[in-house]
Here is the input.
Amino acid sequence: MFDDLPPDLARLLTLRVWHAMWLERIDQKIAAIRQREAQREDGHRNRPPAPDWLVELGIGDGRPPVQIHTGDCHMAGKRHRHRPVSREEARRLLASGLHACTHCHPDQHLGILD
Here is the structure.
């Protein structure tokens, strides 16, 4: 049988300590990854539902409303450039002349005809 381990006790004990140290590091990394994955899953489970309607905000002083979108519209822009609105507020904004998104057509979903 091929035996590539050192023949003396001192070196074998050194190897054992070295491997135990690496096993501890590996176990710590596994625990950290498991905790991170559990936190990510908790975040997905506890995420608030998407709003039904969004108002896209402009750039600049006061950030005026620009467009109305459905809550799941991919054209609504970045999170800091829109805010959720109620059905009533979306209808009011559209009725006051705010543009409806041409991709998700919130005006059709809200029953507003031109």
In short: Strands lie at 53-57, 65-70, 82-85, 99-100. The mean pLDDT is 90.
